[in-house]
Amino acid sequence: MGLRELKKEQTRTLIADTAWRLFTDRGFDAVRVAEIAREARVSEATVFNYFPRKEDLLYSRLEAFGERLVAAVDSRPTGTPVLDTVRTFLTRTSGLLAQVETGDDDALVRLRTVHRMIADSAALRAREQQAIADTTTALAERLAAETDGPPEPAGVTAYVAANALMGVHRALVDLVRRRVLSDESPDRLAADVRVYGEQAFALLAHGLADYGVRSAGRDEEA
């Protein structure tokens, strides 16, 4: 990376980090782009040059998360199943959730602020789903390119696998959002994310053949 590219990346990171701090402190709607520019000591035009929409400022971290996930899959050692790599990546505790686990009350407030403003905004929820969908597509394309066997023009199997793996991510995000907004055992949340994540990946590893088999009791109730 040349000096010019490095400076641009540093500016982008500064703007995104500044926006994230202001959003988590005060909420998405309460922060104006002009304030973010002022705090980051750049022009408002510079902010929009890097982030065309205000929503992009919030989701730059989610997109970076997706890029790191795909990079981890790309760089996994030979012979390593993609499920193992994605499981390790998604079940490790980091960021605000890791801080909450240590008893950081300020981190819990920020985590609640982020999830509350997403829950209350259809535009932010749509942007979140788009970011996850983009990561799913990128992961599927990587898997389709490296999979041995008969060619699949539509990459069906790769897309099924990618959606299953990213489905765990979506489920864990939903779990965190429900729990932090309901004040339900926040001190246990990080541990529960790991436990439920491991259970979900164990289900994927085992397969769905024996999952959701309708019991005789259900037939009688019907």
Structural account:
The protein has helices spanning 3-26, 33-40, 44-50, 54-74, 82-91, 95-101, 105-119, 122-146, 156-182, 186-206, 216-221. It has 222 residues and is mainly α. It folds into two domains: 1-52, Homeodomain-like (Arc Repressor Mutant, subunit A, Orthogonal Bundle); 58-209, Tetracycline Repressor, domain 2, CATH 1.10.357. Helix 1 (3-26) crosses helix 7 (105-119), helix 6 crosses helix 10 and helix 8 packs antiparallel against helix 9 (156-182). 23% of the residues are buried.
Poorly predicted regions are none
Number of domains: 2
Number of strands: 0
> What order do the SSEs take from the amino end to the carboxyl end, as H and E?
HHHHHHHHHHH
CATH architecture of the largest domain: Orthogonal Bundle
* Rg over CA atoms: 20 Å
**What is the molecular shape?**
globular
Largest sheet: none
State the separation between the terminal residues, measured CA to CA: 64 Å
- Note the total helix count: 11
- The overall pLDDT, averaged over residues, is 87
Helix content, binned percent: over 70%
Structural class determined from secondary elements: mainly alpha
According to CATH, what is the class of the largest domain?
Mainly Alpha
Strand content: under 5%
CATH fold group of the largest domain? Tetracycline Repressor, domain 2
